Amino acid sequence: MSAHLIVFWNILHGTKGWDNLSLLPQYKGQPSMKPYYRGYNAPPGGPVDGYLEEERGQSTCSITWTNPSIKEAWWKFPLKSIANVAYLEIYFRSSTPNRHVGFSVFIFNNSSYIPPVNPSQHKVFSHNISTCIEHVTNVPINKETQGIALYNTRDPLVNTTCEGFDPRFATIEICEVKVMGCPSQHFGENCTLCDKKCRSRMCDAFNGSCTYGCENKFMEWPECSVCKEGLFGQDCESHCGQCIIGTFCDRVTGICPDGCQDPWNGSLCNVCKEGYYGQTCKDACGNCRNGTFCNPTTGICPDGCEEHWDGLTCKECKNGNYGQNCDFNCGRCTNGTFCDNITGICTEGCEDHWNGTLCNVCLDGFYGHHCKNKCGLCLTRMLCNKLTGVCPTGCKDNWTGPRCDECEDYKYGPNCVFNCGHCKDGKPCSKLNGHCEAGCVSGWGGLFCSKESSCTENLNADSGISKASTAIISIVSTFVVVTLLYAVVARIVYDKMKHMIPLTGKNPKDIISGKLDDHLVDTNIDPTYQKITKQSENSFYQELRIYKNDDFVQNK
Hints:
alpha+beta; Jelly Rolls; 15% helix; 20% strand
């Protein structure tokens, strides 16, 4: 009902202040009670007929059956429409008010309701049994409802000293009940329209406050004039930022008066502090370049990542690096793959000659920065140092040097098994080919100084040959011997290298003349070629021995 209709309605009925809704036709329903005893001539409609006991006696009252077997009794009055009921003015039977010690009042919107069902939802009043009942008692309701009910019980038994209380039975004995209130959505003695800020425009029947909540659910009731704690703004739809724990922002401006929680920042404490990002600002920025900070929302480093770091947020190691700070380089992973950027393990294995879980140490038998150098002939197959190649316990027989990769003095040949000849002044021969570079001891001759000589050191002066002629003859003889030696060696190598054509694609003549590709002398060439080369090399030295011992007679 609108405000102007209420004013017209009050003038029409000559009323002022709250109305007794029980007498208004638009509200008055049909009352009922239980247990009903017709012999008393006290029907349920008496309390809402507008007459007091003093005016018409007991006939205007309602009295339930007062039998000792009755342990509960009720009287209820439904309204035809919902009203904002302020209070009840109850006129108990003047001779028996204390029979109602401990009574209760219920409200309901469905006329079929029977008290005391669902007391948590319907009970609005319980009498304090430490006091006695007055003949006229006011009971506050302050609820929007479509019915009221009075309920009395002796279960459990009420303990009271009030005069007239009868513990044998429960009864309801009332002579008038005034339901004082306003139409729904109105309040006060003048039945003023509730404020629209109240939820469903329902309010306190006495002062109009929004006791049912606010139309704007984000406002704090009953005033509905300020935002709830934790909200701010004109419509209270904005949430406070991350204020210091236990405090709230200003409900109008949203500013946190005591500052922000760490790591939040800004006047509203709703942005991340520099160096943090994400919905909760708990994620630290990655390793952004030159000490810059990431985007506070996405975590992306706008200027890129520091050295060794990668990924949008610069939290991953760049390919080829690993470790907590990405400052370790991956080992030699196979086929150009990269190691795990946390553990450094090459998941697909290592390059040739590399070993270890991180592929960062040489395979046994190799050494050097690139692990491409083979160990020498270390003693009893002991492995060399993988960095320097040094044999820690010495060399096998006939070998020497820190890496055991050269022949001992007075030994030569591919396996250092040949002994030097009788070189002049006791000097050792060449460790490569056995030649005595300084010449032979007197009485010995040949390239290897291993053939005894019958010639004297001086020629007969009478022979007419001068020393100059002798020198020329010696030079020419040496040239002829060397040429023949080269021809023998070339023939041997040529015959052996015929088998290498399918493997190398090279002409044996080119190989003999020194036109070998670098890879043909590398230590990592095909094993088949290594075998052929070694056989050729051994044959070469065998031919040299035959020459040395048999005065250059070829082995047929």
